[in-house]
């Protein structure tokens, strides 16, 4: 199987996440996409607002109706900081070459990947899929990436794609521009404003039920 690995804080998950996954799935003919909520994201240790269990539940609600989408709890179950190197190693060991994995991340995250734990080892575990962001005109996934990252890839003129020395590929997928952000949603909830049509109604209902993203001082 060709399986996409889509990690993130999903605080909360919204239509931008879901549409991105759908378009990557279609562009690369993936059989399945696993959403992987982080327990403690290394670059956002003090920035997550909703508890990991709530973020996991919201992802489950959001993907329930898409047969190609499912959820992995590998990072929620693993203690400590959720490093991607540990997650990719887990799936590589689990598959033992039976499946092909495609790690999905946005272009901003990819440009910052040199700051990730053991970043040079990441690319040997699976293919990487870099997605565009609204307003960014670049179509080259290595545009703006650190020299240390660019040196790890060469261009395969026959396949017309960048290839890592281990044989994995670096893909770029231009997405439909959907300018929705989780921080925007959190701010709107905190201000008592509507978040309708920014995320699935099931997730909206869960946020209201659990009273997430509300200003605790204001409540008192």
Side-by-side strand order of the widest sheet: 3-2-1-4-5-8-7-6
CATH superfamily: HUPs
The domain count comes to: 1
How far is the N terminus from the C terminus?
Answer: 51 Å
CATH topology call: Rossmann fold
User: What is the 3D shape?
Assistant: globular
The appropriate CATH architecture is 3-Layer(aba) Sandwich
Multimerization status = single chain
List low-pLDDT spans. 216-220
- What is the N-to-C order of secondary-structure elements (H for helix, E for strand)? EHEHEHHEHHEHEEEHHH
SSE blueprint:
Blueprint: E1 2-8, H1 15-27, E2 32-37, H2 52-63, E3 69-71, H3 74-77, H4 84-95, E4 100-106, H5 107-111, H6 119-122, E5 127-131, H7 147-150, E6 153-156, E7 161-164, E8 169-173, H8 182-190, H9 201-210, H10 216-219
Q: How would you describe this protein?
A:
- It is globular, with a radius of gyration of 18 Å.
- The longest helix is centred in the N-terminal third of the chain and has 13 residues.
- It contains 10 helices and 8 strands.
- It has a single domain, classed as Rossmann fold (3-Layer(aba) Sandwich), CATH 3.40.50.
- The chain has 220 residues and is α/β, with parallel strands linked by helices.
- An 8-stranded mixed β-sheet has the order 3-2-1-4-5-8-7-6.
């Amino acid at each position: 199987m060709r399986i996409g690995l889509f990690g993130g804080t999903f605080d909360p998950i919204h239509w931008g996440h879901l549409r991105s996954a759908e378009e990557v799935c279609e562009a690369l003919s993936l059989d399945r996409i696993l959403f992987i909520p982080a327990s403690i994201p290394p670059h956002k240790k003090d920035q997550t607002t909703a508890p990991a269990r709530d973020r996991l539940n919201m992802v489950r609600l959001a993907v329930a109706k898409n047969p190609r989408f499912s959820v992995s709890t590998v990072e929620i179950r693993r203690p400590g900081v959720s490093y991607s190197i540990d997650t990719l190693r887990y799936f590589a060991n689990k598959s033992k070459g039976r499946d092909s994995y495609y790690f999905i991340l946005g272009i901003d995250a990819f440009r910052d990947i040199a700051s990730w734990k053991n970043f040079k080892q990441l690319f040997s575990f699976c293919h990487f899929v870099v997605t565009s962001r609204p307003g960014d005109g670049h179509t080259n996934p290595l545009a703006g990436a650190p020299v240390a990252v660019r040196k790890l890839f060469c261009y395969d003129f026959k396949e017309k794609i960048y290839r890592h020395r281990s044989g994995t590929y670096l893909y770029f997928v231009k997405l439909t521009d959907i300018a929705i952000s989780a921080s925007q949603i959190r701010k709107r909830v905190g201000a008592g404003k509507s978040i309708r049509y920014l995320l699935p109604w099931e997730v909206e209902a869960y946020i209201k039920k659990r009273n997430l993203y509300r200003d605790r001082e204001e409540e008192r």
